[in-house]
Structures are given as structure tokens and as C-alpha cells.
Write a structure and sequence with these properties.
By secondary structure, the chain is mainly α. The chain has one domain (about 45-200). Helices cover about 85% and strands about 0% of the residues. The longest helix is centred in the middle third of the chain and has 40 residues, at about 115-150. The termini are far apart.
Length: about 210
């Protein structure tokens, strides 16, 4: 197992060396993001199992409902999948804006080195989580377009079922991850307010010394 992993890393590094610099940098950043997201092996396993379970909650009904979806009119299908594409587009725009605000540290002058390290680690974790949700939304939009192409090409039922299962699985996963966003927004504002309060307390203490 270790030999296979080392061979895969060598192959990946060999490929990355021949990519343009911006794509090579993307690979390095993606590797760092994976480390920040789940450094613990058990936590990583729980994340993957939960994601697979949520994906299956959408994929299995999608595969079973494929014959019924094929019978929908073009207008009804266009309305449904147009709504899915609109949702994915709005979510992508919202997540990009949220990630820009998440990266702001706010008032850090009053923080100790240990607090700043802890705060920075938490911000990186939130950024990685939001990046994963962003990737889910983009994949969902791509799969939506793929299914529309499959539908209008009158592809075999198996291809319909597979594409719809992937689409609904990614959509349910995207919705589940979107439920984390309000909690993350609250956490960011709560941390910012606590930093402002600490700064005010420190300023007041300096005045009365």
C-alpha cells in the first residue's frame, strides 16, 4: 500500500512539473487544503463516509426516477433544470464572496501568538470547507448540463439513470453542505466581535493604568 502511494506521488509530481505554473500552484494549494481540512485520519474517514451517505441519498432515488423523468416534456424539464442551474450559480457567487470575507482576520493586535495561530487554523479550515462546497456547486452545474445533453440526444436508459443519479447525488450533497454556511457565518461574526471586544478592553486598561 505504501509503495503504491509513493508511486502515485511520484507520478503526480512528474505530471505537475510539466504543467503551467498556475496549474502547478493549484495542485500544491489543493494538497495543503486537504491537510488543513482533516489532519486526523479518523476525522477524514468520517467526512468521507458521511459524504458518501449523503450522496447516496440523492443518487439512489435519482437512478430509480430516471424512467419517469424521461417522460417529462421539454418545457417542464427545462424549468426544473434551469432552476437547478440558477441555484448553483447563486451559490457559487455567494461562496466566492463569503470566502473573500472569511480570509479577513479583523483586529489581531490584541491576540497572542497562540491565539492567532488557533484563529488562523480555524479560518483555514472554514475556507477549505467553503471551497469544497463551491466545488460541489460547480460539479452539480456541470452534471446538470450533462444530463440535459443526454436527454436531448435520446441516450439509452442506463446513461440517463447514471447521469441523473450523479446529478441528484451531487445536488443533495451540495444542499447538505450549504446548511453549514449559516453556522460558519455566525462563527465568523462572533469571532470578529470577540476580537473587537478584546481590543476595546485592552485600550481601556491602558487608559486607566
Amino acid at each position: 500500500m505504501q509503495t503504491r502511494r509513493s508511486l502515485f506521488k511520484r507520478l503526480a509530481s512528474h505530471i505537475v512539473e510539466r504543467l503551467p505554473s498556475e496549474w502547478a500552484t493549484w495542485g500544491e494549494v489543493a494538497e495543503d487544503m486537504g491537510r488543513f481540512r482533516s489532519p486526523d485520519r479518523q476525522e477524514k474517514l468520517r467526512n468521507r463516509l458521511f459524504s458518501v451517505l449523503v450522496f447516496a441519498l440523492g443518487a439512489i432515488p435519482g437512478a430509480l426516477a430516471s424512467p419517469s423523468v424521461m417522460k417529462l416534456s421539454e418545457g417542464a424539464l427545462g424549468a426544473v433544470f434551469g432552476g437547478v442551474l440558477a441555484f448553483c450559480g447563486l451559490l457559487v457567487g455567494f461562496l466566492v464572496t463569503l470566502m473573500l470575507f472569511t480570509g479577513r482576520l479583523g483586529t489581531v493586535q490584541s491576540l497572542s501568538i497562540e491565539d492567532l495561530r488557533s484563529y488562523g487554523s480555524r479560518l483555514r479550515y472554514l475556507l477549505v470547507s467553503q471551497a469544497v462546497t463551491l466545488a460541489c456547486a460547480m460539479i452539480c452545474a456541470v452534471l446538470c448540463i450533462v444530463y440535459l445533453v443526454v436527454y436531448f440526444l435520446v441516450a439509452p436508459l442506463l446513461l440517463h439513470s447514471a447521469s441523473l443519479a450523479l446529478l441528484l447525488g451531487s445536488l443533495v450533497l451540495c444542499l447538505a453542505r450549504s446548511a453549514l454556511l449559516p453556522i460558519q457565518i455566525f462563527e465568523l461574526h462572533d469571532a470578529h466581535l470577540n476580537d473587537e471586544l478584546s481590543a476595546k478592553i485592552e485600550d481601556s486598561n491602558k487608559k486607566y493604568k
